[in-house]
């Protein structure tokens, strides 16, 4: 029997969901049985041989639905191989990625220090200014400067996302049978 994998995500505006869908598709194509669910809808992890969790970062913090998910399923996550991916920076420079990794590490230390995923990854995200609801829409004001105004962009790196998804079965120790 093929291993059953959960790909679960939280999102405000859909870009993390898009990445989760791609990861789920890559794993399905490798003959795994994959469930794709928003984190707030997951009721149990008992059926899964591995869990892949995706979350965006807002104002330096992982979206709360994902933090709640991690703490709700503490017992299962401690014994199930898992991977976490974070969407955030709109600029993929090493400096920016390092800054976000530091934010994620600080989050983990403060809110779920017990959680040690098998692997973790930061991906560049997407921003559609026309979709933002208040107070997120204020980002247009505080992140724009007279010389450099914030614009909508989709920086999701599908090549890197596909490559990471392809590497997961081996990293998570999942064997096809
Ligand atoms: C109000 C606001 C705050 C944000 N704060 C951060 C941040 O602190 N660090 C970061 O790397 N990205 C930040 N981002 C970028 C988002 O993480 C990025 O747009 C992500 O792709 C959103 O995911 P979602 O569409 O699944 O909600 C912010 C975006 C908005 C709109």
What structural category do the secondary elements indicate? alpha/beta
Mean pLDDT: 94
| Biggest sheet overview | 6 strands, mixed
Number of helices: 6
- Let me know the CATH homologous superfamily: Flavodoxin domain
What are the segments in which pLDDT stays under 50 over at least 5 consecutive residues?
A: none
CATH topology, which one?
A: Rossmann fold
What is the 3D form?
globular
Tell me the radius of gyration: 16 Å
- Intertermini distance: 6 Å
Bound molecules: flavin mononucleotide
CATH class: Alpha Beta
Number of DSSP-assigned strands: 8
What fraction of residues sit in β-strands? 15-25%
Helix content: 25-40%
Task: Write the H/E string, N to C.
Answer: EHEEEHHEHEEHEH
What is the total domain count? 1
What's the architecture in CATH terms? 3-Layer(aba) Sandwich
Commentary on this structure:
This protein has 177 residues and is α/β, with parallel strands linked by helices. It has a single domain (4-128, 156-171), classed as Rossmann fold. 37% of the residues lie in helices and 21% in strands. The strands form two sheets. Strands 1, 2, 3, 4, 5 and 6 form a six-stranded mixed β-sheet that branches. β1, α1 and β2 (33-38) form a beta-alpha-beta unit. α1 packs across α6 (158-171). The termini are close together. Flavin mononucleotide (FMN) binds at residues 11-16, 56-60, 87-89, 100, 125-127, 132, 136, 139.
Topology:
Blueprint: E1 4-9, H1 15-29, E2 33-38, E3 50-58, E4 61-62, H2 64-72, H3 74-79, E5 82-87, H4 94-111, E6 119-123, E7 126-127, H5 139-142, E8 153-154, H6 158-171
Parallel strand pairs: 1-2, 1-3, 3-5, 5-6
Antiparallel strand pairs: 3-4, 7-8
The structure holds flavin mononucleotide.
